[in-house]
Amino acid sequence: MKLLIVEDDPDLRRQLSSGLSERGYTVEEAGDGEEALYLGREYPYDLAIVDLGLPKLSGIELIRQWRTEERNFPVLILTARGDWQDKVEGLEAGADDYLVKPFHIEELVARLNALLRRAAGHARPQFDFGPLTLDTTARTVSLNGEPVKLTSYEYRTLEYLVLNAGKTVSKTELTEHLYHQDYDRDSNVLEVFIRRLRQKLDPEQTLQPIDTVRGLGYRFALKATDSAG
């Protein structure tokens, strides 16, 4: 999942970027509201983390402009202001949740995961597809109760497909949401990840979890076996 961190404090921005990258997110940064407005217009993000006290363009106005322009990715506000009026103003501007500084990274990650699931139409962190289970909180995958070892990029690819289960996801969309702006989009790395996922998730070739839609992209084809989705 690709996140945009909008924070003018360089130390906090660096800490957030490092902590979230270590937890498997693709992270891009902006240090002021104008830069963030441009990035949100030009690039696809799954979620933005926005400080309210930004230079050049306030966090509130940034969110309002994104929503006016129908940039509908979830927004989590970070604020040092504990006053309830500021929280209400942020939510009314179009934010989806807020977190007051200082905070623990674990709480931030939990809120991010909840917003990402909600945006994809899912309430629970665990997805069961018969013998295959994916847990978006633990970021683990198991097959017949046994853990499946995936690289960070393999997991990101699978998670994005699962959150968009049943939908055909183009290679361009996968690339834009999983990798940084300067990623080599002409490489065959994505095809390699898909091939490895199929081998690891379906060693007996009985599940067929990922379909190739010729000329269009990929689709996660398994049906949930409980109420997770």
Automatic annotation (TrEMBL):
Q: Which CDD domains match?
A: REC_OmpR_EcPhoP-like, trans_reg_C
- The segment(s) forming the Response regulatory domain are 2-116
Read off the lineage from the record: Bacteria, Pseudomonadati, Pseudomonadota, Gammaproteobacteria, Oceanospirillales
Select a single GO molecular function from the record's annotations and give it: DNA binding
DNA-binding region of this protein: 124-222
Q: Which UniProt keywords apply?
A: DNA-binding, Phosphoprotein, Transcription, Transcription regulation, Two-component regulatory system
Name of the protein in question: DNA-binding response regulator
Start and end residues of each OmpR/PhoB-type domain: 124-222
Pfam families per the record? Response_reg, Trans_reg_C
Query: What residues bear 4-aspartylphosphate in this entry?
Result: D51
